[in-house]
Structure formats: structure tokens, C-alpha cells
Amino acid sequence: MALETAQIQDKLSATFSDVTFLFKLEKDILSIEVPADKITAIILYLKNDSELRFHFLTDLCGVHYPDNELERQFAIVYHMHNWYENKRIRIKTYISGENPSLKSLTTIFPSANWMERETYDFYGIDFIGHPQLKRILNMDEMVSFPMRKEFPLEDGGRTDKDDRFFGRTQSNK
């Protein structure tokens, strides 16, 4: 029997009756919005349930929404895959912009290690309990987080590039 979207929704709603889920079907992938304080328990359940079997964490990334209210300025998005049924789901949780932090998933999925480090490196999100949360791609001396929307797109004081080569000159006609 193929794993259906309704079955996933029903099992999550029954198991976590105290949680308000927001379910959406986006491009044939079930997207589930969950509260940040329940994310670890829900992902652990999705992995360990004998019918759901979402054993593979495909991706984990951050998103910055600076125009949202303070408690929803950052989102962490998890993509999980059930190889037995070839079913994919997306789980999204929002966290505060004041102190963006969330529990690490490295004890559930060791593959989350580098994905959480990359998310920290670019968004400054602290993954509590991560075994080695430090920059992975940017310089250690960097004090800002380049994927945040307030990060400047380019250095206005650069003199080493000529805008003519980038199609940014105004015609003098």
C-alpha cells in the first residue's frame, strides 16, 4: 500500500493532538508547518514510525523573513524522504529573529551536521547541542551572516571593478 498524504496527516494529528499543524500540498510535496518547540519530537516520530519511515534527511536550510513579526523572522526548512515509498515531505518551523536558535538534529541524523553548520554560517542560527557549530564556508573572522536580508549586496567602496563590464553604466547620449 502506497503512503498517502492523508495518512501522514492523520498519523501526525493523532500522535501530536496538542500541536496545531498547517498542512499544504505544494508541487506534489506535502509541506507541514510545525511549532519550533515540537520539531525534534515530530522529526524523530517521522523517522521511527514503522509506516511513515522517513529515514533520510535530504536537506536542511534557513530562510530570513525580516518583514515578519519578530517571532517568525527565520524559518528552518527540512526535507525528508521515505525511500521505501519514494515519498518526500517538507517541514518548516519559524524561530525568533531576536535570538535565532533551535535544537540540533545531529543525534537523530548525523548528516545534519554540515547542513546545520552551513545554516549557522550564513544565517547565524544557533543549533543547540551541535557538536561543532562553527563556520564552514566563510572566514572565521567574519562577524556578519551573508544570507540575511540586511547584509549589503556589494561593497560600495570597491575600486577594482568597472561597472561597464557588468552592464551597469548609463548611456551618455
TrEMBL record:
<comment type="similarity">
    <text>Belongs to the complex I 30 kDa subunit family.</text>
</comment>
<keyword id="KW-1278">Translocase</keyword>
<dbReference type="InterPro" id="IPR010218">
    <property type="entry name" value="NADH_DH_suC"/>
</dbReference>
<dbReference type="InterPro" id="IPR037232">
    <property type="entry name" value="NADH_quin_OxRdtase_su_C/D-like"/>
</dbReference>
<keyword id="KW-0472">Membrane</keyword>
<keyword id="KW-0813">Transport</keyword>
<dbReference type="GO" id="GO:0008137">
    <property type="term" value="F:NADH dehydrogenase (ubiquinone) activity"/>
</dbReference>
<dbReference type="GO" id="GO:0005886">
    <property type="term" value="C:plasma membrane"/>
</dbReference>
<protein>
    <recommendedName>
        <fullName>NADH-quinone oxidoreductase subunit C</fullName>
        <ecNumber>7.1.1.-</ecNumber>
    </recommendedName>
</protein>
<dbReference type="InterPro" id="IPR020396">
    <property type="entry name" value="NADH_UbQ_OxRdtase_CS"/>
</dbReference>
<keyword id="KW-0874">Quinone</keyword>
<feature type="compositionally biased region" description="Basic and acidic residues">
    <location>
        <begin position="153"/>
        <end position="166"/>
    </location>
</feature>
<feature type="region of interest" description="Disordered">
    <location>
        <begin position="153"/>
        <end position="173"/>
    </location>
</feature>
<comment type="subunit">
    <text>NDH-1 is composed of 14 different subunits. Subunits NuoB, C, D, E, F, and G constitute the peripheral sector of the complex.</text>
</comment>
<feature type="domain" description="NADH:ubiquinone oxidoreductase 30kDa subunit">
    <location>
        <begin position="32"/>
        <end position="154"/>
    </location>
</feature>
<comment type="function">
    <text>NDH-1 shuttles electrons from NADH, via FMN and iron-sulfur (Fe-S) centers, to quinones in the respiratory chain. The immediate electron acceptor for the enzyme in this species is believed to be a menaquinone. Couples the redox reaction to proton translocation (for every two electrons transferred, four hydrogen ions are translocated across the cytoplasmic membrane), and thus conserves the redox energy in a proton gradient.</text>
</comment>
<keyword id="KW-1003">Cell membrane</keyword>
<dbReference type="Pfam" id="PF00329">
    <property type="entry name" value="Complex1_30kDa"/>
</dbReference>
<dbReference type="GO" id="GO:0050136">
    <property type="term" value="F:NADH dehydrogenase (quinone) (non-electrogenic) activity"/>
</dbReference>
<keyword id="KW-0520">NAD</keyword>
<dbReference type="GO" id="GO:0048038">
    <property type="term" value="F:quinone binding"/>
</dbReference>
<dbReference type="InterPro" id="IPR001268">
    <property type="entry name" value="NADH_UbQ_OxRdtase_30kDa_su"/>
</dbReference>
